[in-house]
Amino acid sequence: MDNTRKLWIGLATLLGIAFSVLLFMGGEIYRKAPPMPEKVVTPTGATIYSRADIERGRQVWQSIGGMELGSIWGHGGYVAPDWSADWVHREATAVLDLWADREAGVPYSELNADRRAGLQGQLREDIRRNTYDPATATITLDADRANAIATVSAHYENLFGDDPATAELREAYAMRNGTIPDAANRHALTAFFWWTAWAAMTERPDSDVTYTNNWPGEPLIGNAPTNTMYLWSAFSVLFLIAGIAVLGWHHAVTHGRDAGDHMLPASDPLALVRVTPSMRATAWYFWIVLALFIVQILLGAMTAHYQVEGQQLYGFQLSDVLPYALTRTWHTQLAVLWIATAWLGTGLYIAPAISGHEPRFQRAGVIFLLTCLVVIVVGAFAGQWLAVMQKLDLSLNFWFGHQGWEYADIGRFWQWFLFVGLMLWLLLVGRALWPALRRRDESRSIVGLLFVSVVCIGLFFGAGLMWNEHTSLSMVEYWRWWLVHLWVEGFFEVFATAVIAFLFTRLGLLKPRAATVAVLFATIVFLAGGVLGTLHHLYFAGTPTAVLALGASFSALEVVPLAYIGFEAYHTWKLGRATPWMARYKWPIYFFVAVAFWNLVGAGLFGFLINPPLSLYWMQGLNLTPLHGHTALFGVYGMLGIGLVLFCLRGLKPGLVWNERLLKAIFWCFNIGLSLMSLLTLLPIGTMQLLAAIKHGYWYARSAEFMQQPIVELLVWLRVPGDTIFSIGALMLAWFVLRLWVGPKRMADMPPEAVTAER
Amino acid sequence: MIEFYAQIRLAHIAAVMTSGGLFVLRGLFVQAGRPAWALARAPRYFSYAVDTTLLTAALMLVTILPSGVFANGWLFAKLALLPVYIGFGWGALRAGTPGRRRGCFVAALVAYGSMFAIARAHDPLGPLASLIRG
pLDDT value at position A758? Predict the structure, then answer.
């Protein structure tokens, strides 16, 4: 059995086992999720909240942007509080104040240390006690808790309305006035917030750990990291080091094994590729990529600015028409959309190039798909606007409005539409690739692997269709991270590796067999950690302890291949200089090298910084999370998308002279801008927040009191240099692409000596 | 942020003076037939850094005192002159002929001086305000 076959069998076995375990864990998460009570009552039978209240509250929360305005269980936006943590702290404080007033006629903070400790001890026992009765599906809370809930509820009903008393707080949270105009809806919202807080402060039956594994850290109620977190955090580092050692040994043994004489082509093989009508039509995709990218940056600037002017943009009352919840929603959605469009376009461009076959009506299919994508973006975003501005009926919100799940925000109708669109993409790519897939030649495996990664990207979007309006929050999170994680930390990695290796084989720089073995091996290594690593997003989402153990161990393994990415980066750079004609692909290659760099820094370093359970316990939802998010998503997949766009443009416009100086400026603007954004703002604020969270409790690091400090505001302003440089890079990229169509410089127009130098 | 208004204003003014001074120096080198120093990497990237600092401080000032934008139009006048200054400034360093470079240099200096005067006077007419309005 040859190496390739062994690796395919190994990959299939790995995926079979890993997904079986992941699905089993899904079952466990379902069984052990925090219960949804039918009613919440006092001992005298008075109803505090009903199930209908909580479920309606969740719908209301989703309609105003859900995770895009503050966060729940640590997942979501960073400007407004984590509502679960905020509620926990406010309810605990309200109970303590009630008891202190009853006992000594003063607020809790004015008692002496002994008395405070005594009351805190009493609170911990009381608040952590699980009074859920499975037989009647009822939670019973004493009168003091009911009073505290009423106090906290009044605060949130005030905050989400337009009462002047909370105007300053709304500004600090970047909330528009009258976020929820309907009073009944505001009250329902408090039921949902309360339930998420209840799960965070109530111990599981026969356990001293809450449903959310003691998240958030809150000294008042005794929420602190568990023993399990310490244990698996330590072991995850051990596994990381062991994995690096094993991979290093493997590299030492196999390095150079396939190095032999490889005849490089005398000229660019891809220059001979016939550009078919459907390939030409993919140019529209690349134009859309740039348009979405620039709009995304604009929305990002508005979102960042909302941190310093909570409702305005340099004096203009922006929140009345485009509040934070929307700018952030569209900013995060467009990131995924433009990157995905780059890949859709690349797939449709290279498929006919690989097979030499243009199926009938392929061009029509390509244009139809693009039209559908534009309709989806416009329609989904319009629905989200109507939802957040509270102009859409709640009954329609799930299907056409804002689902409120970060990265999976669009209405269910638009999700289905996008899923069908992705299946259409698979069909178009598959039918163009079919002759190449059937050919029994050296390239078959690598073409096959590329197609498998494309199929998986399409199919895994389906994970976003696995929940409905009333699915338990823990299960929604489970499926949401199937979609997001298995994309960005799973099959996107496979696609990235496969497409770059594949392009190098097509350029004749790598032997297909060697490339296939390398990509298959890399896929096995990525997915060995990547599949079960999905669980690292779910540590504190109402999941059982096993999620901590498995998630910590396997997600540490995801970082193993990144430790060696320097080899890949250097190899890629060297291939860029392998022949004189490779100068045509210099800048796509440089972007691929940047992918490797940011894979190490953004995904590896900044990712592992927040990865172990003990780290994430404190860091989730702080600025250290977008530090990883921005550097990883743009650094790896944004750069890859741009590199692939440039690669395809080289083929679409073969006889043109590229403006090398402009491309160099674009490249460095992106890298320098991203670095400054991270180092001048996200890292320092995140670190300050971390220290504050450990000292005072998680709620404090996300509070207005902390985030409105002058030093934090100053650090937010330090986004301007990096973001400006980055934006200039994007504008220059748009100008570069525009000039390929408008007034381009052709090789034929250049004097002979210049053409020689260009070659 | 209002606590830091004085410091931010100082940083903005310092950046303005540095940017203007650097432009004058580079322009003079170009006029003297020595463009290599003016267009070398070090002064170029230093000018980008200074201009970015200037822009950041300016945006912070507008946020702290947004009413400045709507007062008597002095800020609008400054902002209107800014692209003029940038355009002529580019021409002063890179225009094709010596005559054009000289013309652009002078025009850029006039634009810069006007912006400075408007900012000092907090009036769109700059120092002429007191003469015209009495």
Answer: 38
| B interface test, pick of A661, A719, A724, A728 with most B CB neighbours within 10 Å | A724
The per-residue pLDDT for A751 is 54
Q: CB distance from A312 to chain B under 8 Å?
A: yes
Nearest by CB to residue B56, choosing from A315, A713, A720, is A720
**pLDDT tens-digit series, residues B85-97:** 999 999 999 888 8
Is-contact B96 B50, C-beta < 8 A?
no
The radius of gyration computed from the CA coordinates of chain A, to the nearest angstrom, equals 27
Which whole-number Å values give the CA distances from A587 to A271, A583, A658, A666, A670, in the listed order? 17, 8, 10, 10, 13
A426 contact partners, CB below 8 Å, separation of at least 6:
A454, A455, A458
Write the ipTM. Answer: 0.70
Cα-to-chain-centroid distance, residue A101: 46
CB contact under 8 A, A717 and B59: yes
CA distance B94 to B90: 6
CA A111/CA A129 separation, integer angstroms: 25
Q: Which residues of chain A have pLDDT under 50?
A: 752-759
Chain B, window 57-116: residues with a beta carbon less than 8 angstroms from a chain A beta carbon: 59-60, 62-63, 66-67, 69-70
At residue A510, the pLDDT reads 86
Predicted structure pTM score: 0.91
Q: Which residues of A touch B3 (CB under 8 A)?
A: 710
| CA proximity to A579, closest of A290, A271, A283, A313 | A271
Rounded CA-CA distance A270/A548 in Å is 48
- B63 min Cα distance to partner chain A (Å): 5
